[in-house]
Design brief:
The complex is a heterodimer. Chain A is of the alpha/beta class. Chain A is about 65% helix and about 10% strand. In chain A, strand 1, helix 3 and strand 2 form a beta-alpha-beta unit. The two termini of chain A are about 25 Å apart. Chain B has two domains: about 220 residues, 3-Layer(aba) Sandwich (Rossmann fold), CATH 3.40.50.300; about 90 residues, Alpha-Beta Plaits. Chain B is about 35% helix and about 30% strand. Classes of the chains: A alpha/beta, B alpha/beta. Chains A and B meet through helix 1 and helix 8 of A and helix 2 and helix 3 of B.
Chain lengths: ~350, ~325
């Protein structure tokens, strides 16, 4: 125990003085959080709106007012011809145009649902989708039906949201801090020859691993908590489930990631190799094959099979379940079991490799 | 086992890596408190032998008893009794002097009181008083080396393995380091040291020469030099040593020649050949001789001789 503690203290002291590791551990999560915070902030206001009111009735004016009063739209121009709308959209004076056709007020009065047209600049697909959503709501509540035209729009059926992405983000960041920092820290010791010095000492593999992994475990846990709380404060991420199940899921995932880092370190002789190995085996699968960004159900069948060995896949499902839906852990047992298998497999492989390296 | 005069007892130690035999049937013993030098060129098998003695590498065959423990059977048991320092002076660069000591004390299982005692000893021994808070990476070579030595003997091992401990260190620090080793040896610590520096080997009580995995010679430095009994060595200073070598290699009384710095060493086939005859032969060939004298063989002579013989056998 004293020996594990000595390794633990030493590791913490090293991390504190090692700028590169500190940067990886502290700033990368912060950077990603800010990056995604901006990218995911689709709460768009002050959309420049051009209006072509061909009806000029009280009803049509009420509809335009409803758009402006919603707070989402600023009426920047009134146009009288379709060419005027094109020009305004082309020079970015307006982001969207509302066209109220003649007879709008008459149709509304006679109890039918009149159509209004919305033209949206679709260069930014996400913005366009959002604007369309706002406009549709406003039109509906004014008793009209919206017909939209979105030039160059790429329709994204997967309406992502911050809340949906945060669990994946946590998985991704944990992979960086846990796998990379563990792998690099062991390989660095090999490069410096301190590993050999340690192996000459009467310290068992278990104490060494525990002392070595514990600081990274705690840091990763803190990292996860930071992202989670930040997401709660900034994006209103709910916590509908049980904190303990959350802790268990996160801990399992970190433990597996640490063991993966250790396993990589037993195979790699240089930090560069270790980093590349971590990138290939941990980062990329977590980013691409976990359902974090690309839904697994829309992947080719062969790739779907590959995703079954990506631990983040299970972790993200468990996390979304616990945090967003309040799913009880009893319903998440397949995911939890998969994570346990992951941890056991990685720890076993790493221990076998370490023991073999010893003699 | 404490009563055994042998600190290290090696019998028929062999290690193969696939087809390659790194250490081939090596046997020797080291007495308690002895400074035992392990000499050989790179790849001769020195480090492999040390790694086996420290329990890091399993012998393919043969036994090694270190501090009374059979290393092959109980590699972990041996570790508590030995200290090890490598040529890299493996310290944690980002830890201070003090923190390095704490760490190594910790993994050797020292309790707080003993660690405090040993910390004082190491700081004093290494001359690091006042530098306890310096980062290891900011220490100059000699200090690093002495700190590494200090960390290797925190647990007061009876046996100390030093793998080329003076590489890249200035001559003054080397001398200081050897004084420390002498002090340890006087205190009863057995020291097994590998080195390239043959002047350092002269400071060992006994040396073993290892070549191509085989033990080529063993004994005190004067004992191993006895391979030159009946074969005097001439040291010749001449402005044209390369021509001189060519002439002497063809002379019947000369066994072989080699360059030693600016001088030339010629090993004679017998005591009946004299310096005068050799000088005459050189002058006959038109080569000036500034100085010629019989010298006592250096370890370097012995080393080259051993390598030559081994190569001739092969």
């Amino acid at each position: 125990m004293r020996k594990a503690l000595a390794v633990y203290r030493k590791e913490l002291r090293q991390i504190r003085r090692d700028r590169r590791t500190l940067t990886t551990i502290v700033f990368v999560p912060a950077f990603f959080l800010l990056l995604y915070g901006y990218a995911l902030n689709w709460d768009i206001r002050h959309i420049a709106l051009a209006v072509q009111d061909r009806d000029q009735t009280a009803q049509s004016r009420a509809l335009v007012s409803a758009f402006v009063n919603s707070g989402y739209f600023d009426r920047v121009a009134d146009v009288w011809s379709p060419a005027g709308i094109d020009r305004l959209l082309d020079v970015d004076t307006a982001q969207a145009a509302l066209i109220v056709p003649e007879g709008f007020g008459r149709e509304l009065e006679s109890g039918r649902v009149p159509q209004v047209q919305m033209i949206i600049n679709g260069e930014n697909a996400n913005t366009a989708t959002t604007i369309m959503g706002y406009a549709g709501n406003i039109a509906r509540s004014s008793g009209a039906m919206l017909v939209t035209v979105e030039p160059r729009i790429w329709y994204n059926p997967e309406l992502r949201s911050t809340l949906f992405l945060v669990p994946g983000l946590i998985a991704y960041i944990l992979m960086i801090t846990a796998v990379v920092s563990t792998a690099l820290s062991v390989v660095r010791e090999k490069e410096n020859g301190t590993m050999e010095q340690v192996r000459m000492a009467p310290i068992d593999t278990f104490s060494f691993i525990v002392g070595k992994a514990l600081p990274y475990f705690l840091i990763s846990l803190a990292s996860a908590a930071l992202i989670l709380f930040a997401a709660m404060a900034l994006f209103g991420l709910p916590m509908r489930g049980n904190w303990l199940s959350l802790l268990v899921a996160v801990s399992l995932f970190i433990a597996g990631a640490l063991a993966t880092g250790l396993l990589i370190s037993t195979a790699a002789e240089t930090q560069q190799v270790a980093f590349q190995a971590a990138l290939l085996t941990s980062f990329l699968p977590t980013l691409l094959l976990s359902g974090f960004i690309f839904p697994i159900s829309s992947m080719p069948h062969a790739l779907q099979i590959v995703t079954t060995i990506v631990p983040a896949r299970y972790f993200i499902v468990a996390l979304r379940g616990i945090v967003l839906k309040g799913t009880p852990v009893t319903l998440l047992w397949p995911q939890m079991a998969a994570l346990v298998v992951y941890v056991l497999a990685m720890v076993t492989l790493a221990s076998v490799r370490l023991a073999r390296e010893k003699l | 086992m404490a009563s055994s005069p042998q600190a290290i007892d090696v019998r028929g130690l062999t290690r193969r890596f696939g087809q390659f035999v790194a250490v081939d049937n090596v046997s020797f013993d080291v007495r308690r408190g002895e400074i035992f030098g392990f000499l050989g060129s790179n790849g001769a098998g020195k480090s492999t032998t040390i790694r086996m003695l420290c329990g890091l590498l399993k012998p393919t065959s043969g036994t090694a008893i270190v501090g009374g423990i059979d290393v092959g059977r109980d590699p972990e048991g041996v570790k508590a009794r030995i200290g090890y320092m490598s040529q890299k002076f493996s310290l944690y660069e980002l830890l201070t002097v003090d923190q390095n000591i704490s760490f190594f004390g910790g993994i050797y299982g020292l309790d707080a009181r003993r660690l405090a005692d040993r910390r004082r000893f190491v700081i004093e021994m290494a001359g690091l008083a006042g530098r306890e808070g310096t980062l290891a990476r900011d220490l100059a070579g000699g200090w690093r080396q002495r700190l590494a030595l200090g960390c290797a003997i925190l647990h007061e091992p009876a046996i100390l393995f030093l793998d080329e401990p003076t590489g890249g260190v200035d001559p003054l620090s080397r001398r200081q380091f050897w004084r420390l080793i002498d002090t340890l040896s006087q205190a009863g610590v057995t020291v097994l040291v590998t080195t390239h520096y043959l002047d350092e080997a002269e400071r060992c009580h006994r040396v073993a020469l290892i070549h191509a995995g085989k033990l080529a010679a063993i004994g005190t430095t004067s004992e191993v030099k006895r391979v030159f009994d009946g074969r005097p060595i001439l040291e010749i200073r001449t402005p044209s040593p390369v021509d001189a070598m060519r002439v002497l290699d063809a002379a019947p009384g000369v066994e072989k020649t080699s360059l030693f710095g600016t001088a030339l060493h010629a090993v004679l086939r017998g005591t009946d050949v004299t310096a005068g005859q050799v000088a005459a032969r050189l002058r006959d060939a038109g080569i000036a001789v500034d100085e010629i004298a019989v010298v006592t063989p250096s370890l370097e002579d012995v080393f080259l001789d051993v390598v030559d013989k081994a190569t001739a056998h092969a």
